[in-house]
Backbone:
């Protein structure tokens, strides 16, 4: 071993202990490493939502027929969306709750658009494990807080779709949306 | 392979001799599962389940490959290709599909018995720690494969199973939701998720087969364990795998497959859920959503975490507890330090082993049943006990237990202590 090492030192540059072969080794392995990582990139990004899935990223909804106290269920990005026209009583109930009682503190005003406080638009996806809660359809169980009730693991939401009881950690998500006219909403 | 008296392979036919000199494949098989593998002579029937698991893996691969010839992995076509095309139109399709569906359940039954055999007889202890850990890797791969297979018929349980199980990932802060979307290739289960699950469901069984080879390879270094847990000392203690254990495994497999056939033919849907005969509907969740029975104990652990603790919320606790309940089994060889392997000679351990079995059965019951308050409480106690068993009881028992005297050798234990007969009975 000793003779071999000394032979390579003479072959390399100077006597500083770094041989030309070490440099070549590091350079070659680094280059191959970068190349391998670069080759992994397409294998990983192909799993992300494809263009046709992303193309469904906006949905227009006509809400002109939804009377106070009623709601409709629609789809956005293949996920259920709840559009609910809150009654004055439901709005009052939601505003009566103090924020300190909430697991995920938000006011109804923060969850609706200014001037459209009666339109509660949320995803119909329970924030626990993704089931569709009951309560949007006529006669469905709305749970003790008058909002939504998830039958899978018993999460209960209030009239502002905020989590009040059960295993879900967050309020029903409010998607990005805007009113394109007084009776149409564009989600996404 | 592992013992000096193992019979070497001697090809008789000139063709085999020619092959052996160029590619010693028959030699490998002879040493692994033939007359060249000496096995302890005292194995009981609990040792039959390893070979049986191999048989079920083969059944699943064979039936799965032919089912894939008729299955459409499309969100529009999957449900009908299974329930109309395969179940009604394809010749013998109903049989192949029911065989595959129940084959999965029976594969898990066999593997669970195999795992509990290992737990009772200390099969995870030195020098077989890697055998145990590779077995756990197989088990994890089986869970992934079974889950993705269950999604393929694209019924209500398929769809919502995919939604809930990928939802586990969303429990992790920050990265969770992007990871979930990346896994699904969308915001909810749909075409992208179905096609990739099909691809992986086809791939993973072959990965399992590869790990099975490593599992058997690492087993054959020390050789098989045995019900006394005493090491093999000499040739008297062993028998060649073939013909002794091939015969025993063969007859037992025939008996066990009879039970499998009874269920497949007479109660093919007994272990499934009727809701999976309703096509997937992204807008309505089934009222009572549960996984397949083999996941119930873990599902119960997941659901037992109903409270926030420290800075971690209940949802993440549930997911962590569920993952950890399996991961902790990897540390079992170091949690149980008792030098005695077999539970037969460990009076205290034996009692706690059966308590653990009862505990897991309770977890399974809770995981499969609808939520009511007392069942949640029962599940919480059972889940706590599960962790208590492995993390506290087992280390303490192995430190303080007085074990029973071990037999001097396997042959002595087999011959009921009639030492005078031993040399006569084992000659040859």
Residues:
């Amino acid at each position: 071993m000793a003779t071999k090492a000394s032979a390579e030192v003479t072959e390399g540059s100077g006597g500083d202990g770094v041989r030309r072969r070490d440099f070549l080794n590091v350079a070659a392995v680094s280059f191959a490493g970068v190349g391998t990582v670069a080759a992994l990139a397409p294998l990983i990004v192909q799993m992300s939502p494809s263009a046709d899935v992303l193309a469904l990223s906006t949905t227009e909804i006509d809400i002109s027929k939804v009377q106070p106290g009623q709601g409709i269920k629609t789809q956005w990005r293949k996920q259920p969306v709840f559009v609910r026209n809150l009654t004055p009583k439901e709005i009052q109930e939601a505003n009566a709750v103090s924020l300190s009682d909430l697991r995920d503190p938000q006011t109804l005003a923060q969850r609706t658009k200014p001037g459209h406080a009666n339109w509660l638009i949320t995803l119909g996806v329970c924030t626990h494990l993704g089931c569709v809660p009951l309560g949007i359809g006529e006669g469905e169980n709305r749970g003790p807080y008058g909002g939504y009730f998830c039958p899978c693991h018993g999460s209960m939401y209030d009239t502002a779709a905020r989590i009040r009881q059960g295993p879900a950690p967050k309020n029903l998500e409010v998607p990005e949306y805007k009113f394109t006219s007084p009776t149409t909403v564009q989600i996404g | 392979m592992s013992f000096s008296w193992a019979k070497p392979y001697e090809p008789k036919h000139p063709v085999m001799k020619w092959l052996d000199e160029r590619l010693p494949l028959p030699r490998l098989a002879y040493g692994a599962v033939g007359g060249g593998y000496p096995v302890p002579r005292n194995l009981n029937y609990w040792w039959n389940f390893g070979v049986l698991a191999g048989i079920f893996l083969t059944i699943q691969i064979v039936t799965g490959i032919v089912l894939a010839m008729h299955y459409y992995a499309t969100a529009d076509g999957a449900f009908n290709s299974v329930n109309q095309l395969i179940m009604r139109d394809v010749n013998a399709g109903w049989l192949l599909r029911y065989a595959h569906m129940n084959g999965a359940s029976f594969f898990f039954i066999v593997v669970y018995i195999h795992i509990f055999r290992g737990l009772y007889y200390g099969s995870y202890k030195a020098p077989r720690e890697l055998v145990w850990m590779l077995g756990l890797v197989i088990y994890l791969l089986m869970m992934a494969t079974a889950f993705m297979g269950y999604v393929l018929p694209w019924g209500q349980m398929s769809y919502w199973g995919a939604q809930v199980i990928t939802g586990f990932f969303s429990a992790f802060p920050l990265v969770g939701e992007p990871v979930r979307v990346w896994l699904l290739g969308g915001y909810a289960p749909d075409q992208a998720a179905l096609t990739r699950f099909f691809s992986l469901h086809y791939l993973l069984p072959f990965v399992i087969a590869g790990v099975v080879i490593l599992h058997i390879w690492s087993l054959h270094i020390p050789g098989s364990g045995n019900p006394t847990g005493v090491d093999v000392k000499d040739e008297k203690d062993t028998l060649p795998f073939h013909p002794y254990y091939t015969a025993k495994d063969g007859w037992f497999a025939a008996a066990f497959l009879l039970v499998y056939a009874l269920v497949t033919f007479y109660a093919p849907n007994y272990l499934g859920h009727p809701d999976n005969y309703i096509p997937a509907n992204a807008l309505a969740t089934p009222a009572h959503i549960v996984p397949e029975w083999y996941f119930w104990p873990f599902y119960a652990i997941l659901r037992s975490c109903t409270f926030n603790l420290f800075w971690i919320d209940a949802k993440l606790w549930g997911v962590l507890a569920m993952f950890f309940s399996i991961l902790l089994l990897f540390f079992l060889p170091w949690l149980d330090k008792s030098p005695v392997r077999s539970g037969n000679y460990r009076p205290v351990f034996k009692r706690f082993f059966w308590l653990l079995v009862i505990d897991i059965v309770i977890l399974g019951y809770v995981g499969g049943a609808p939520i009511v308050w007392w069942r949640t409480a029962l599940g919480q106690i059972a889940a706590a006990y599960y962790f208590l068993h492995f993390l506290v009881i087992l280390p303490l028992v192995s430190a303080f237990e007085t074990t029973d005297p071990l037999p001097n050798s396997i042959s002595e234990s087999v011959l009921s202590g009639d030492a005078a007969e031993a040399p006569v009975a084992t000659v040859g």
In short: Residues 1-38 of chain B form one domain.
